[in-house]
């Protein structure tokens, strides 16, 4: 039996674990969050000062989820008393069938958006060269991502959560009704509720545990991605968040104030072991990104990239995985587009811990 009042143990201090800890703790649950690295570390998927918030999905269900997430971001901004999303708007351009499908989904959801010609778009945003169809929506913007994680952690701690960094979960013993979590500081915690918000580490940390309970996690491909910041030649106000549905690869970009314009190919990096990777950019991919930027992002200096290394936990269909078996809830498969949903993911996880049913699209 677990001891009365045993905390829900949240593994992972990335944005999803932080959001889950915040949702759980503010609902009055005792929470222990453990993170193997330091607070705000740069070895997972969540580091850096900026992420795109956008509602432009071709899939009506994800559009609806962005609306739910946006309301929760606004509630979080109110709770911490400062903005977490800069409303720069977003622009999509490129393959007409993709851009038109996004426009249709935004239309169906009643989200205001505007179609432009590439020339009109270039007049408005001279830092970008547009092609194909162009679409903009104003409810999008730039999440102050490092601040957002801090906001979740602060709210969690304020509501009584214990946050332990530099503490690795070294083993999980499944007793059926509850689990014992072994920590690298020598402690063992028995708990009826474990949340593995471990992103790229889910297959190794809880894959076998789920398999032993008769459920396989989907085949997750863990890749090392290498976007880069390029010095901006334009004022900060010149930059929307942007996605280019290009012929071969999808490309995203946004300004990180003080660091430059971040541009990256979406999910093209090599498969890696999250614990053993060199974080060095692949030279051919680096050259390809610079060539892309030279051609399509004239508002930056393409010759001066500062590369970033981060992980994508790619599910086969880019759908998230948020589900529970017995005492263990897992959250993974965020496939390079999870940050914008973080406050909603925290709520979905807290609902599962409270005995709720999984959100069907994310169920195992
Ligand atoms: C370069 C890049 C750009 C992106 N851009 C966007 C964007 O613009 N918009 C958007 O919506 N999304 C974006 N994403 C995706 C988004 O950032 C991720 O989906 C999100 O950060 C995933 O968070 P996470 O908490 O699941 O994973 P992580 O941040 O990786 O957190 C998992 C944590 O678990 C910890 N952990 C693992 N194993 C253990 C253990 N045994 N013991 C203790 N701790 C453990 C890890 O150290 C890690 O901190 C981007 C991702 C990257 C990499």
Give the full name of the CATH homologous superfamily of the largest domain: FAD/NAD(P)-binding domain
Write out the distinct hetero groups bound to the structure.
flavin-adenine dinucleotide
Give the low-pLDDT segments: none
Top-tier CATH class of the largest domain: Alpha Beta
The total strand number stands at 22
Describe the structure.
This protein is α+β, with helices and mostly antiparallel strands. It has two domains: 1-86 and 142-219 and 317-364, FAD/NAD(P)-binding domain, CATH 3.50.50.60; 90-138 and 221-314, D-Amino Acid Oxidase, subunit A, domain 2 (D-Amino Acid Oxidase, Chain A, domain 2, 2-Layer Sandwich), CATH 3.30.9. 29% of the residues lie in helices and 26% in strands. The chain is built from eight helices and 22 strands. It has helices at 15-26, 60-80, 96-109, 118-124, 145-158, 202-212, 283-296, 342-353, and strands at residues 8-11, 31-34, 50-53, 85-86, 90-94, 114-116, 133-137, 141-144, 162-164, 169-174, 179-183, 188-191, 194-196, 221-225, 228-230, 241-245, 250-256, 260-265, 306-307, 310-314, 321-325, 328-332. The strands form five sheets. Strands 6-7-5-16-17-18-15-19 form an eight-stranded mixed β-sheet, sandwiched between helices. It has a six-stranded mixed β-sheet with strand order 9-2-1-13-22-21, sandwiched between helices. A three-stranded antiparallel β-sheet has the order 3-8-4. The longest helix has 21 residues, at 60-80. The protein is globular, with a radius of gyration of 20 Å. The model has no long low-confidence stretch (mean pLDDT 97). Bound molecules: flavin-adenine dinucleotide (FAD). Residues 11-17, 34-37, 44-46, 51-52, 168-169, 197-201, 205, 225, 227, 264, 308, 310-312, 334, 336-340 line the site of flavin-adenine dinucleotide.
């Amino acid at each position: 039996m677990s001891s009365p009042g045993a905390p829900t143990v949240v593994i992972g201090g990335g944005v999803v674990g932080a959001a889950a800890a915040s949702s759980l703790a503010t609902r009055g649950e005792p929470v222990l969050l453990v993170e193997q690295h330091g607070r705000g570390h740069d070895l997972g998927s969540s580091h850096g000062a900026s992420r795109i918030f956008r509602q432009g999905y071709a899939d009506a269900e994800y559009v609806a989820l962005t609306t739910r997430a946006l309301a929760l971001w606004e509630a979080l901004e109110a709770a911490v008393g400062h903005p977490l999303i800069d409303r720069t708007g977003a622009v999509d351009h490129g393959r007409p069938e993709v851009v038109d499908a996004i426009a249709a989904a935004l239309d169906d959801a009643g989200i205001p958006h505007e179609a432009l010609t590439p020339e009109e778009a270039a007049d408005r945003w001279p830092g970008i060269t547009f092609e194909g169809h162009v679409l903009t929506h104003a409810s999008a913007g730039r999440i102050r991502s490092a601040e957002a994680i801090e906001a979740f952690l602060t709210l969690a701690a304020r509501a009584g959560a214990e946050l332990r960094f530099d503490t690795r979960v070294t083993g999980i013993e499944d007793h059926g009704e509850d689990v014992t979590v072994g920590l690298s500081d020598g402690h063992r915690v028995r708990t009826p509720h474990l949340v593995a918000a471990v992103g790229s580490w889910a297959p190794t940390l809880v894959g076998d545990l789920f398999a032993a309970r008769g459920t396989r996690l989907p085949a997750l491909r863990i890749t090392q991605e290498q976007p880069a910041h390029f010095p901006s030649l334009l004022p900060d106000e010149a930059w929307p968040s942007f996605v280019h549905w290009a012929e071969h690869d999808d490309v995203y970009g946004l300004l990180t104030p003080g660091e430059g314009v971040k541009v990256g190919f979406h999910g093209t990096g090599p498969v890696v072991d999250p614990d053993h990777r060199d974080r060095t950019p692949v030279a051919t991919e680096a050259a390809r990104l610079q060539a892309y930027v030279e051609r399509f992002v004239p508002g930056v200096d393409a010759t001066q990239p500062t590369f970033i290394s981060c992980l994508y936990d790619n599910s086969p269909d880019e759908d998230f995985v948020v589900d529970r078996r017995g005492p263990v809830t897992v959250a993974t498969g965020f496939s390079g587009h999870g940050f914008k949903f973080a406050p909603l993911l925290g709520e979905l996880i807290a609902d599962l811990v409270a005995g709720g049913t999984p959100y069907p699209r994310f169920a195992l």
